[in-house]
Amino acid sequence: MPTTERSGCEIYYERTAGDPDREPVVLVGDLGMGAWQWGWQYAGLTGRDTIVYDHRGSGRSAEPPGPYTIRDLVDDFEAVLGAESIPRAHVVGCGLGGCVGLAVARQTGRVRSLTLLGTPISGPGYDASKLQANPADSSALRTSTETLLSAAFCESQPEVVDQILEWRGDEDATPAAQDAQQAAVEGFDAEPLYELTRPALVVAGGQDTVVDSTESRRLAEDLPRGELLEFPEAGHLVGVERSAALNDRLIEWLASVES
Q: Which residue of 41, 133, 169, 173 pairs with 32 in a disulfide if CB–CB is 3.0 to 4.6 A?
């Protein structure tokens, strides 16, 4: 199991080797969630060098005392890239992970492009309560998970919902670590957006209960090279609900950025 360390905090990550002529993709997860969140994209980016890791406090990474800051999470991101000798990568982030991606783009030269799923412009645009649930409380996990997905998806694919519940029970952050990660979001502000000039694909679920789709539209409009991809029927976990369509568009978009 590959790990790296930053300021005494061990960060777990996985890497799938791909085409060395293409820049790698790093998948950055949402508040409280383990790397399970990216199973659909990690498998779908065929032929790409892809990295997924657990935030401090989540999954198999260490849980130092909180609160955490966005700078802490940017440092963890850089530690993973440094461990793998990657100078620059495409960043795909959801929620908290999208905030980290925006911060990395502002603070470093490591970002080739951004793909931002359900990502707020600042802390007030993010309702962390919908994500927070004690992984030891199966009832709370189910309520949270069903809130993050559309009602139609939950009804049509109950077996996927059950699998997500199992993963969340095994990998999601403790309540204390969730609070520590929430502090990072609360202190986040991506403005001024006109300074963030990397290509950015903003992905919105029309039924998102964590980040309203109007926030995603404004993010796409105000980023100088922003582009909006909206799935009106999907919830916050759009990467789960519309994985095939999203993966196809993502592969196509990454190729266009590199051409």
A: 173
Nearest CA among 184, 179, 188 for reference residue 134: 179
What is the domain class of 3-258 according to CATH? alpha beta
Radius of gyration of the chain (CA): 16
pLDDT digits (tens, 9 = 90+) for 170-207: 999 999 999 999 999 999 999 999 999 999 999 999 99
Choose among 21, 17, 28: nearest CA to 79. Answer: 28
Residues 86-126 have pLDDT tens digits of 999 999 999 999 999 999 999 999 999 999 999 999 999 99
For residues 128 and 177, is the Cβ–Cβ distance under 8 A?
Answer: no
Pairing of β 111-117 and β 89-94: parallel
3-state secondary structure of 140: helix
Residue in the block written with tokens 């964590």: 210
Domain coordinates in residue numbering, the chain = 3-258
- Over 70: is that where the pLDDT of 1 sits? no
> Which two three-digit tokens encode residue 59?
């999954």
Calpha distance 114→111 (Å, rounded): 7
